[in-house]
Design goal:
The structure holds two protein chains of two kinds. In chain A, a hairpin with an 8-residue loop joins strand 9 and strand 10. In chain A, 0% of the residues lie in helices and 52% in strands. Chain A is mainly beta. The termini of chain A are far apart. Chain B is built from no helices and twelve strands. In chain B, strands 2, 5, 6, 10, 11 and 12 form a six-stranded mixed β-sheet that branches. Chain B has a four-stranded antiparallel β-sheet with strand order 3-9-8-7, with no helix packed on it. In chain B, strands 1-4 form a two-stranded antiparallel sheet. In chain B, 0% of the residues lie in helices and 50% in strands. In chain B, strand 5 and strand 6 form a beta hairpin. By secondary structure, chain B is mostly beta strands. Classes of the chains: A mainly beta, B mainly beta. Chains A and B meet through strand 5, strand 9 and strand 10 of A and strand 5, strand 6 and strand 11 of B.
Chain lengths: 117, 115
């Protein structure tokens, strides 16, 4: 199946700093990628839909100025957590749909664990 | 609004025993249904999916699931559980045509396997 990779796998930062997480589709082009957030022992919640070449679409309640999404190429989307605070600590997972299949199946990255001190 | 419910938050089974994880969905039309597995600190791996056709679908690692429209259910089963199956399991539905890629996840079921 298609491969999606995230980097970094884990990151620790100080409160007030910004952190960038990358999501790459390694063997296919993804015009659309999705960013999810997962709190400990909880399910995944969709944060935003990243569209190549256009603005991301954010879900209700997600601050677009807080979570900046850039989808500059067909294989890369980035999520930047700006002015991070401890409450932003979470597991962030990206996913992408392989447009060749058009089945709605998503392929997920390994996730990135953010800890804000 | 579409929703997915996994009634069991935590399940413990003995190695070699059979397993059934429950999933119920709320959706007006026939949805696209998925089961994912997540090991600690890892991303999600697709176990199986249902789009149409045969209501009993086979997946990887010996898992299967049955779509029952009358019960709005898509329960995951495995005849004999292995210790390596211990993980978090998520049922998900893709609304609309299924091509949006926006999955709605259930709360997850944690599977513990006793030796």
């Amino acid at each position: 199946g298609a491969v999606v990779s995230q980097h970094p796998s884990w990151v620790i930062c100080k409160s007030g700093t910004s952190v960038k997480i990358e999501c790459r589709s390694l063997d296919f082009q993804a015009t659309t990628m999705f960013w999810y957030r997962q709190f400990p022992k909880q399910s995944l919640m969709l944060m935003a839909t990243s569209n190549e070449g256009s603005k991301a679409t954010y879900e209700q309640g997600v601050e677009k100025d807080k979570f900046l999404i850039n989808h500059a190429s067909l294989t890369l989307s980035t999520l930047t957590v700006t002015s991070a605070h401890p409450e932003d600590s979470s597991f962030y997972i990206c996913s992408a749909r392989d447009g060749r299949t058009n089945t709605g199946e998503l392929f997920f990255g390994e996730g990135s664990r953010l800890t804000v001190l | 609004a579409q929703s997915v419910t996994q009634p069991d938050i935590h399940i413990t089974v003995s190695e070699g025993a059979s397993l059934e994880l429950r999933c119920n969905y709320s959706y007006g039309a026939t949805p696209y249904l998925f089961w994912y597995v997540q090991s600690p600190g890892q991303g999600l791996q697709l176990l199986l999916k249902y789009f149409s056709g045969d209501t009993l679908v086979q997946g990887i690692k010996g898992f299967e699931a049955e779509f029952k429209r009358s019960q709005s259910s898509f329960n995951l089963r495995k005849p004999s559980v292995h210790w390596s199956d211990a993980a978090e399991y998520f049922c998900a539905v893709a609304p609309g045509s299924g091509n949006t890629g926006k999955l709605i996840f259930g709360q997850g079921t944690t599977l513990q396997v006793k030796p």
